């Protein structure tokens, strides 16, 4: 699938793989995570376990949730805003820059 139009038809495993490849710049992350889980927890790990591991990490009490609670995700220096990733240039964002 090349675009997001059919994402709702995908299962959670395919949707996560698509997001990592198409929006996160991580074309091999899903496969690497599955390999990592198998190495650490055994060969019985499945693609569903990959989804569960991402959900757990991204939960507010997970590793990423705790990190984001304490991290500085953006820094404003004068009229310049530094962020990692992308920020949509909506009217609300533009108005906040003035």
Automatic annotation (TrEMBL):
Q: Record's Gene3D superfamilies?
A: 3.60.21.10
The record ties this protein, via PANTHER family, to: CALCINEURIN-LIKE PHOSPHOESTERASE DOMAIN-CONTAINING PROTEIN (PTHR42254:SF1), METALLOPHOS DOMAIN-CONTAINING PROTEIN (PTHR42254)
This one is known as: Uncharacterized protein
Instruction: Give the originating organism.
Output: Grammatophora oceanica
């Amino acid at each position: 699938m090349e675009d997001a139009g059919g994402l709702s038809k995908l299962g959670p495993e395919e949707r996560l793989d698509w997001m990592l490849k198409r929006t996160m710049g991580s074309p091999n992350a899903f496969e690497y995570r599955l390999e990592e889980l198998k190495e650490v927890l055994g060969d019985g790990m499945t693609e569903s376990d990959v989804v569960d591991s991402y959900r757990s990490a991204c939960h507010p009490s997970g590793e990423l949730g705790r990190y984001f609670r304490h991290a500085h995700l953006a820094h404003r220096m004068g009229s310049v805003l530094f962020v990692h990733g992308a920020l949509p240039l909506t009217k609300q964002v533009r108005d906040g820059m003035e």
